[in-house]
Amino acid sequence: MTYNSNRIIKKCIVNLLKYNDIGSELEIIIVDNSHHTVFIELKQLLQANYDKRIRIVKNNKNGGYGQGNNLGVLHAVQSKLICIMNPDVILTQPLFKKSLENFNRGKHLGMLGFKQYGGANISFYMKPEYYMPLASKLLTKIFNKSNLFFSKYMYLSGAFLFIDSKKFKEIGCFDEGIFLYCEEPDISMRLQNKGWKIKYDSSLSYIHEVGDRNEFSEFTVKTILNSRKYYFNKYDLSFKFHIRKNLVELQLIMLVSILFKNSKKLESIKKHILLLKNKLKEE
């Protein structure tokens, strides 16, 4: 799925074709959420360079990450294995054949992810319900560096995922009630509730061209909070308790920022705390 990503999508496609190790079995479908003029520009680019090897689908609404990917899955009628891929993901080695082999060997395998490099080099995260103040970020880095993935407590990065198509459709694909964030733990939860397994394979890797997202964004924080509220309510978990844990962490970080006189970070933390407190009042 892409949104105003014409600048980077060509690089993504070049690498896809370069490292295609399954030949004509690889079906590339691009779902474009962009404005009509941007969509036409991308469509012409694809037609001029790739003929009919790549299909592009115009999404008439920006319904979020899940809705856009569901539209792509809907058009992948022949595929037994679905690959969800961000346009800023770059392959550095062939891995499609290995993915197929993993699913052919493991009949109970529902989802597969590989080693991610880029940003903070995080391939998987702690599930929201297992979040621990101050400890979760550190543990996530340690477990990623050590390639220790525990599917009960963790979920794979959604930048580049392989999912069994039949199992994915059986659980209802992505929940379109989630606009952005929390899609991966939600998919993990539903697959695991059906008894299907999630696997992380560190023997192969890819690059996700994204920087560390440390800058405060009110829109991002609000979107994350709305998605987590939806997720927690969906699985009968305590969203209030989750917010309180976040507040504890931020307040401790604020004290450290005051001690070290980090005024820029302090201002961002104060805004973040205010948003959390307002959200807590709503509950």
Q: Would you state the CATH class of the largest domain?
A: Alpha Beta
CATH architecture of the largest domain: Alpha-Beta Complex
Structural class comes to: alpha/beta
Strand adjacency order, main sheet = 3-8-5-9-4
What ranges have pLDDT less than 50 throughout 5 or more consecutive residues?
none
Domain module tally: 2
Write the layout of secondary structure elements.
Blueprint: H1 6-18, E1 28-32, H2 36-50, E2 54-58, H3 65-75, E3 81-85, E4 89-91, H4 96-105, E5 109-117, E6 124-126, H5 135-146, E7 154-156, E8 160-164, H6 165-170, H7 183-193, E9 197-208, H8 218-234, H9 239-259, H10 263-282
Parallel strand pairs: 1-2, 5-9
Antiparallel strand pairs: 3-8, 4-9, 5-8, 6-7
Helix pairs in contact: 8-10, 9-10
In short:
The protein has 283 residues and is an alpha/beta fold.
Structure, described:
By secondary structure, the protein is α/β, with parallel strands linked by helices. It folds into 2 domains: 6-208, Spore Coat Polysaccharide Biosynthesis Protein SpsA, Chain A (Alpha-Beta Complex), CATH 3.90.550.60; 218-282. The chain contains 10 helices and 9 strands. It has helices at residues 6-18, 36-50, 65-75, 96-105, 135-146, 165-170, 183-193, 218-234, 239-259, 263-282, and strands at 28-32, 54-58, 81-85, 89-91, 109-117, 124-126, 154-156, 160-164, 197-208. The strands form 3 sheets. It has a 5-stranded mixed beta sheet. The protein has a two-stranded parallel ribbon with strand order 1-2. A two-stranded antiparallel sheet has the order 6-7. α2 links the parallel β1 (28-32) and β2 (54-58). The longest helix has 21 residues, at 239-259. It starts with 5 loop residues before the first helix and ends with a helix. The model has no long low-confidence stretch (mean pLDDT 92).
